[in-house]
User: Fold this.
Amino acid sequence: MAEARFAAVLEDQTSGAASSVTASMQRMKAAITGDLEQIKALQTAMRNLKGPGAQNTAQFSQMSDQLTALKAKVQSNTSEFLRLGGSAGDLVGKAGPAADSLKAIMGAAKGVGGPMGGLFEKFELLKNAFTGGAGAAAGWAAAVVAVVVVVAAAVTAIASLVYQMAEYALTVGSAAIKTQAVMEALTGSAGAAAGLQGSIARVAGQVPIAADQVGKLAQDLYKAGKRGAELEDALFSASMAAAGLGKNVKKGSELAKKAMLPLDVQTIKFKEHIATIFSGVKVQPFLEGLQDVIGLFDDSTSSGKALKAIVETMLNPLFDGASAVFPYVKMGFRGMVVGALLVAIAVLRIKNVLRDTFGGSDILSGIDGMQAAFYVGVAAAILFGVGLAALAIVIGILAAALAVCAFAMLLFMAPFIIGAIIVGAVFVAAILLVIAAVMTLIDIWNWAGAAIASVDMGEIGSNMMSSLANAISSGASWVLDALTSLASRMGSTIKSALGIASPSKLFASMGEFTALGMAVGIESETPAVAGALESMVTPPAMQEMAVAGASVAQGGSGGGKVSITIPFTYAGASKAEESQQRGLLAGFCEVLEVALEEAGIDASLAVV
Amino acid sequence: MARKGVGDTYGAGAAEIDRWIENIRSLPEMVNAAAPAVGEMLLAEFQRTANAGTTPEGEPWPPTKKGNKPLAGAAAALQLVVSGNVIIIKITDHHVFHQFAAGVPARRMLPSGGLPDRLGNAIRLGMVDMGVEWMTRGGSHAKSGGAKMKPGGG
Assistant:
């Protein structure tokens, strides 16, 4: 059976481009997934910071939600350029609201309390304070503090000297009273004791040993029955012997005088002279009064019990308060450091995500890593200073409280200067401590304020989102290029159309030509093509039809119509093949009629 | 109400990307899916030109000697066979002689050379649309995309 065929092959040319696009999308998905994991980790870290209290947890949750919303916007924009109808320009435009969202987050953080909010608020206050002319006030404060320090130092030095002298007087006086008591016990009367002490003093001034040692020798001699001049001579000899000079040294002799010359001996004697000077101070009344006062502190007395109650009432709350303050200081310090670190983590993670997602370093130009690191460093320094200052203030408060207690004690010891000195010293120490803390704070604020004055959180956030928009724009452009290439390859799917030219020899060449065309156009269907070629039926030759018993009848003359009847027999074939062959023969007849007609022969062919 | 986490928000987006990746990965299969629709379009177009008594390129067939319209039933003689990505449109019987002007005036029903530009362009545009639909909605939705191919002109 004769056939003419037109064949077309839809050839896939998208494989390479499709692989490229899928690879890029997988890379993008991996980057976004990594981004997601980092945000989850950040969110978890925020929720774990429950120590400072429920307020902070709520703040962090709020910020987490805002970050999630921001991320959703970025994700939405990212998905946008995956759609063929989108464009990079649209995405850049849509990144603007996301930047506004980040600014809103910064604003919200400034508005809330707690570590994070306090951090932003502190930065804002610092910025305002040091750009608003508060430096002059700080200078005045520093000058006042300097004057106070000088005066306080002078007062402290004088007070210390007075205290030392008073203490020495008390020590000497107390020793004299003790010695007087011992002598009276030994001699049996105050008069005899005074005589014995006079002998000791005279001998001590002539011998190179200490008066205390002379006094012990005198007591031994007195117990041995020596009295008066005899005791004094024996004491002189015994003292010289104790000094290693022997018993035979005479009073007033050159040897005795030389024995008093060594420096160590003169030093001992100088101290004894000074003590003698102070021994004139009548400390006994003071000590008696002190005894009365000390008796007040005896917890076996009603006054001691009352003072004990006062002290406990005043100090216990203070120490309880201090023990409660330290955890707050510690927690606040830790919370503020964590807050500063969270800022750094957020900046670095966004930076890393951008780098991992879109590669290169250009897109990171808007995020100043050094500025961020500097910012965090300043924050940490401020927090450290604040923590130290808080600690110093707490200690100062405790010292002041102790001073108050001492002052309370002073109410019972008003006549005694020693109490005032103690109170003054404690007060001065407390004031100096607080002043030092304040000066430290001023120094830190002064340094940090100048550094922070140029930092704008809103600008940092804006730069970050601008970089993100640029990155998305670049990524969108790249993906769109890949998709465009893919689309163009989709349109190139028609490899070629197999046209069938008109052969000059139809029956001889048709099968060959068609087979050639099929070979060109069909790549993967060779078995089917082979089957099709085998099924082709070679057009029957004219001779075969004649053999089949064609009869020609010519009707009329002079160009009359020729009627040709072709008997058709096809033994051994299926009905379908017979019908096919009959149809072919009929077609052939039709073609032959046309050919005869064109040759000037009016012929009628029929298949019977 | 439970808080909505980031993962919940992103889950649908990740699935969407996966679906895109899978669709694009299977894009080379599109030619096989598109071949029947492209074949139907070509068949319909060749039938249209045959009914109009023109070649696929739009050149009118010569009339019979009697001035009648030739090959009145030619459109029905066009047959479509699609195997994989191969599209074959064939004619049989006496139409073959007209196709090749074998003793009769040339009345081509099939293109004699390459595909006419307007048909090639229609297929290309249709394949692009189908490819987009394939990527965005998946192959099962895109199989009908080829039916949208509309050859312009006449």
Summary: The beta strands of chain B are 79-83, 86-92. The CA atoms of residues 34 and 70 of chain B lie 34 Å apart. DSSP finds six helices and two strands in chain B. The first strand of chain B starts at residue 79 and ends at 83.
